[in-house]
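Structure ticket #2291
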Amino acid sequence: MRTHYLWSSVLALCLVFVPIQAYPAQPHVLNAKVEAATPVAPYEQLHVYGADENSASVKEIVETFKDMVEASNQHSIENVLKHYNPQFISGDNMTMAQIKDLIQETWESYPDIRYDSKPVELRVSGDWATLETFDTSTATAPPDKDVINIPGKLKSESRSLLFLRKLGNTWEIMSDATIWEQAIIRYGVGDDIHITLSAPEQVKAGETYSATIQANIPEGIFTIATIDNQPLTFPHVKVDDKFRAMEADSNQLQRVLTANSTNHNEIVTATLGLTSVDQHNPDRPSLALNGIATIVKRVNVVPISSEDVLAALKRKDLVKTSANGKIDLTGNLQPPATKGADLELSVPASPVPTQTPGRVMPDHGKPKS
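Resolution: structure written out below.
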């Protein structure tokens, strides 16, 4: 389970809904259905290193973790934060005050959010310990009458680390880290539509990389999408982006992005809109929004110094193309031309919440119209 700041980020970030104000909302649901969190059977067995699995330390750490998960599902901020050391700093360089705000904003935006977090591996070294967890969360996303007047479903998954220290008789969380994390929120988009966001899990600061959103879109549906990246900072800085038509032959959109040079971890956010032609007015047909989905994926950024940046700019032997060879990564850092003209839709990027009891990703708030 991650600290609530990550969940808030990927939950609050986690598929934050990106409103499409230019399209009329249509409550047409494409096989939308609600499902429980993915089973985590592969992680049911806790592997312990550095201590006997029946030792007092192992039992105390596991009980601390279980108590924090329970407090998260009860939305008890005091009982979540009591497990953190006052000097806690997250792996995303967030303070306890910021984490508290993000947790509360996530609970306000997603009142029925449910966390399910399983311990995977525990490493004990005297009064220090590291607990690795697999975390999921699910929630109902409120409808927005100005965008699409039906509720959505949020789901997130992550793999995380909690770094603990024993002080007196208590194990306290000193810091944390997220190995990988992804969240998705669907409005009117059923689970039969498989949506993937491909992006690296780790890059160097200032490095270019490609990200691709792809989906199995039914015939007769015109699909638009947008992709951008944002550093995990608080408060969140919003970025405007335009929707582009997805390639008809492959049902995908690919963009070249540049990792931030401020040494912050970041997220890639992709939003997919399913539209159809509304011909109620034959003289003026318009696009009707049938469904929308936003998927968010974490990209951890390896810090580099200013000297490293200058040296990298001088090198010409770096990766030259994207994985499929279609996009040149050696030119300027602007996104390349894509098939189909850009659609003049200004969309404020909105992140979504994540999932780890007691942990949160930077919150980007509720869906906005």
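Closing remark: Residues 119 and 133 are 4 Å apart (CA to CA).
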